[in-house]
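yo

u said u wanted the structure for the complex thing, so here. seqs first:
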Amino acid sequence: MSATTSLSNDYSESNVAMLKAVFNGGLKLLLAPLAGIGLFLLLWSSAATSINTSLGQFPGPAAVWEQIHSLYQEHREERVKEGAFYERQEKRNAARQAKDPDYVVRIRAYTGKETYLDQIITSLVTVMSGFILAVVIAVPLGITIGLSKTLNSAINPVIQIFKPVSPLAWLPLVTMVVSSVYVSNDQLVAKSLLNSMITVTLCCLWPMVINTSLGVRSVEKDLINVSQVLNLSAFTHIKKIVLPSAIPMIFTGMRLSFGVAWMVLIAAEMLAQNPGLGKFVWDEFQNGSSNSLARIMVAVLTIGLIGFLLDRSMLKLQQWVSWNKTANS
Amino acid sequence: MNAQLEISHIDMVFDTPKGPFTALKGVDLKIAKGEFISLIGHSGCGKSTVLNVVAGLYQASKGGVVLNGREVTAPGPERAVVFQNHSLLPWLTAYQNVELAVDQVFGRRKSKQEKKQWIEHNLELVHMDHALHKRPDEISGGMKQRVGIARALAMQPEILLMDEPFGALDALTRAHMQDTLMEIQQELNNTVIMITHDVDEAVLLSDRIVMMTNGPEATIGEILDIDLERPRDRVQMANDAEYVRLRTEVLKFLYEKQRKVEPLVAKKKKQQEGKKAKVA
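structre next:
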């Protein structure tokens, strides 16, 4: 009897020890980042109280938190208004149809101002579509260049010259070209969105082309020999040997350019008055109310958080696509 | 001799920044069907170059390779290569690696079911049927080399070219692999050209040993016929007088006739004499 109790005692003791170890490990794992964030908030709030601008005191964490709430509140109010608008419209249309069966219903879109969440979504859509367009162009181009030395030496000078150009320098050109080329009555996509999207594409293109071609060129010689001995067709060669070898490099290029694209997009939206987070920041700056700085700070934090999440999801995508599951950071 | 493969007066000249470098000069060899040939020689003597020319991966500067009466100039699956470092595609499993070759060589000539059986049969030949669905990074070096051999065999090649297939393996694994290879050779009677550094390996496995002189302008120095009865057993061979004689022949060629490394003492003596001469 006593033996069993001591046994179970031992057991529970070891359990407690294990729990302690887990707790300590978790503490260390969580403690350092939490301490870092806490210290940052402390420094921020103490620095904020001693900076005075013409728009009032520099916003501290509390003011920013308040604005996050108010921005969300505005979003909900706007949605309620929108719902009411469509409801009224439906009733009106139903009434008119009841009076006159031949009446063709016309739905008018709600034209209220974009909320902060709308702006975030616009920015995300812009960066994604620009990025995807770049992938569609850059990956096949990079593979072709990587496979052919002649083509590489032909195209390389062009790439090397355009690579260091800030995409913002392209923006005026893109704007003019889009407004002259893209003329249709029912504009599916707004011109402004197209402008910033193409700017993002131009910014993503070069690093992706360079990294893809580098990845393709660094396929192991032995594997190329295998492909030759097997007489693989060009298509099978690319599918079975080139692409799997080059995927880590292709993704490096993608993540590199995605990060830059997100940064550039904000600037492009500011300059070109395209809807999105950049425009939000610019509008708030022009608005110059006592809340503006805090609202801009909210945007800054949002941009950072989204940029981080985008990079993480690219990493997840890479791990999912790549045969080598050890890709990290 | 009715030659299946004829290596005819091959010269190989490489362009280097320092000017042309003649690696091979007048290499000439006829190989009968079902023969097992070993190429042996010191590092850098151009053994791999000969193999690559036969494989079609290199183009000879002069002369050529004739297989069954037709000149070959490009690589092809009828001359399968087992590479030194296995060269398996790291993103495919053992089965898929062999499958890639089988799909390519047999295409629609075999049904899906036949292909599956053929792939499994070849992996069984090299005793890898227990790890069909493992990727190269999950299996040992010897196992990878086995899969490489299975891939080559699955192409049903006329000639099997092996570039130091067991060079990177430890001695025990290597002995095991040699036994497997002899077993397969007994069964399939392939024509094999194998490069090796290992004298015992060459004598144990070959019908003829082709010994190459040192480069540049390397060529065939001597050819040794190995008339030992098959199947050969490595333990019995160790005491076989003929085996020992043949082994000594190869050693003599490599370390007396084609000695590459001068003993340190002799080297020092020469240097000192040189210095003395300068002083004088």
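The interface with chain B takes residues 220, 222-223, 225-226, 228-232, 236, 240-241, 244, 323-324 of chain A (CB under 8 Å). The first helix of chain A runs from residue 2 to 49.
cya
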